[in-house]
Amino acid sequence: MHEPVKDSLVETLVDDRYFVRSLVARGGMSTVYLATDRRLDRDVALKVLYPHLAADRGFLRRFESEAKSAARLSHPHVVGVLDQGITDSLAYLVMEYVPGRTLRGLLDERGTLSPRLALALLDAVVEGLAAAHDAGLVHRDVKPENVLLADNGRIKIADFGLARAVSTNTNTGTLVGTVAYLAPELVTAGGADERSDVYSAGIMLYEMLTGRQPYTGDAPIQVAFAHVHSTVPAPSVLCPGLAEDLDELVRWCTAKDPEERPVNGRALLGELRHIRSSLNDAELDYRCASGPAGRKAPTGAPTESLAGATEVLAAAGAATSVIETSSLRPDAGQGDATEVIRRGGNDTTVFPAGGLGTGNHGDADNADGDYDDDDDRDDDHGDDGDLSPAARRRLAKRDERDRLRQSDREAHRPQVSLRSGKPRRRGILLAVLLTVLLAAVAYAGWFFGAGPGALVSIPDVSNVSAQEAGTQLGDAGLNYTTDEVFDEVVAAGLAVGTDPAATQEVRRFRPVTLLVSKGPQMFSVPNLAQRTIEAAESDLRDAELVLGAVTEEFSESVAAGNIISQQPLPDEQLRLGTPVDVTVSKGPAPVEVPLVTGLAEAAAVDAVEAAGLAAAVAPEQVNSVSVPKGAVVAQTPASGLLERGGTVTLTISLGPRMVEVPNYVGQRAEAAREDLESRGFTVEVENLLGGLLGLVRDQEPGAGTAPEGSTIVLKVV
Q1: Architecture of 100-370 per CATH?
Q2: Which CATH number applies to 591-653: 3.30.565.10, 1.10.3720.10, 3.90.550.10, 3.30.10.20?
Q3: What is the sign of the dihedral through the CA atoms of 616, 620, 625 and 628?
Q4: What is the pLDDT of residues 265-289, one digit of tens each?
Q5: Pairing of strands 622-623, 647-655
Q6: Phi, psi angle pair for 385, to nearest 5°
């Protein structure tokens, strides 16, 4: 048996701030660790690049730029980038730590999901994508392995911007993605935009509803070709009970032509929520019972799913770089942990852009049994007599939609009509038309080649002065506006970056925003005095701060459980997430119970109240041989500590009880003595003339009553 090799970074301190606690996962580009931020005392996910990448200065510049772009994307459904750093020995990225598991783990456990759950999960994913698309960012690798389901119910997209950073590091002619969710345009052209993310989201919805991916194959290239040449089948092919609106949603998202998909996540989000609200409970709660194991694959699709290590499909002689796509997982023993995407899952694949074109793959397509548009349409129509009414309605709706789309295309198609007339006039018209067309072509060539419509790459202007950044943008022929933003890393007055981000190619006429740092955003400390811990946590959360150390002490003026003091003080300005320490009251300090037994009632009450306690006199008094009447014979509690204001109960003495004393004169002294002692008296004997007779001659006091415990004197002769 081989002993496990301990990772060299575990139990070390990175950059004097991040204490590495354990290894989480390894990938193609980096290693992920669970670490603790010593400065803010919180758990984070630390992604450390492999040394050969950290040694590439060009890659590090792009890595740093992409980290800053991703850090500006703050959204509840996106895993946040908190920090990045480059030391002498390593380069790292610090991300939000999300304890929980992935959507892949949920699908492995359940097989299929009901439309209610699938649409709710997709809603959160698409909302995160919409926020990213609004900010000019594209994910490029949307899949269940990158959707984290946190223990607290939050849904977050992981690895945002990472595929983007990697793609800038791959050689020309390659692209990055996960083959099962790859948009067709990424295979044929290599270019990705917001609609590529929409396609991947549609594939993910198909898998959640049916329990399987639409395309499978023995090799990644087969699946890639299927995305290019086939139409994603409706989910109801595998699960006939699914609502027709869900088929339409999947087909819209996964249209082969990007122009026929939602333009971005924001457009998809609106339609998604409309469908959720329009379906009834039966349609929302229907669930495909068989799952992936109980259904046949679509006709012609290979039955084995693609489950291999990260694949590299590159043009001959082209070097490639592979992105790791491991998600995060907390330490074992913490319940449903975030799962680590291991080899054998849906790994990110690097393809040659343009190298998987549609030119010479007809035979391969047929061999794979993939669907094409014509075959799919013929299969759907078939013999109308064999279709159910619901199927006929579905086909009619689709045909009507296709007719409207074709009509729209025809309406926008320019037409030129040359009426019949004299040949000379027709020739002049043709010459004029040709001249206009040539001028238009020439103008378009200039406009898009060297004019305002020419493509230009946005320079990386991060960490330079605003003036220098403006000069670089102007030299590139770009028009820009300036916007000030808060930034935790970049100093005030320096450029944070641009929107769109650096290295993107845009037309010269497209406006670019130069983002200039205002420094870190500062937050005012709220006044926490007299607040409970729960209320203080809420106040700090609203102020973008966190609760720090909590200590306790006694207080005579602040009720137990309320805050006495805080550090830093109210109204001080702190950075995002700074902890605030508080001192909580334990209430008044306890006091010593005074001993008041034997004291007169009034004196005892005064002594108890002087100690800060309350005195209560018991309603029943008791006889006491030793304590005189009116004095305290007992107290409860008798001693110890008592909370200030606590009650001490006093019992008052009635004095000794009166007992009958018989006349013993003439009786034997010994018998008189025994009788008196049995009555509770103390007996003294005085012998007269030696007491030879042993008879009582006299007694003091005489016959009558006397206090219990008093002394009776017998005079004996």
Answers
A1: Orthogonal Bundle (1.10)
A2: 3.30.10.20
A3: positive
A4: 999 999 999 999 999 999 999 999 7
A5: parallel
A6: -70, -20
* Residue 231: closest CA among 210, 202, 268, 208: 202
| Amino acid at site 433 | L
Rounded CA-CA distance 530/554 in Å is 14
Other residues' Cβ atoms within 10 Å of the Cβ of residue 696:
22
Question: Residue 384 and residue 450: Cα distance in Å, rounded?
Answer: 56
| Tokens read off for 668 | 């034997």
Query: Helix, strand, coil proportions of the chain in percent (round to 5)?
Result: 35, 25, 45
The answer to whether the bond into 292 is cis (omega within 30° of 0) is no
Q: Are 126 and 269 in contact (CB under 8 A)?
A: yes
Which pTM was predicted? Answer: 0.45
Amino acid at 571: D
Q: How far apart are CA 607 and CA 588, in angstroms?
A: 20
Q: Measure Cα distances from 288 to 241, 294, 388 in Å.
A: 7, 10, 19
Positions annotated as catalytic residues are 141
pLDDT in tens, 303-330: 233 222 222 223 222 222 222 333 333 3
Query: Where do the domains of the chain lie?
Result: 100-370, 455-517, 522-585, 591-653, 658-716
Beta strands in 81-174 (DSSP E): 81-86, 91-96, 100-102, 147-150, 155-157
Q: CA 303, CA 482: separation in Å to the nearest integer?
A: 55
How many helices (H) and strands (E) the chain has is answered by 19, 32
The set of residues, in sequence order, having a beta carbon less than 8 Å from that of 386 and lying 6+ positions away, is: none
User: Pseudo-torsion of CA 245, 247, 253, 259, nearest 10°?
Assistant: -90
Cα distances from 538 to residues 24, 528, 560, in angstroms, run 32, 10, 19
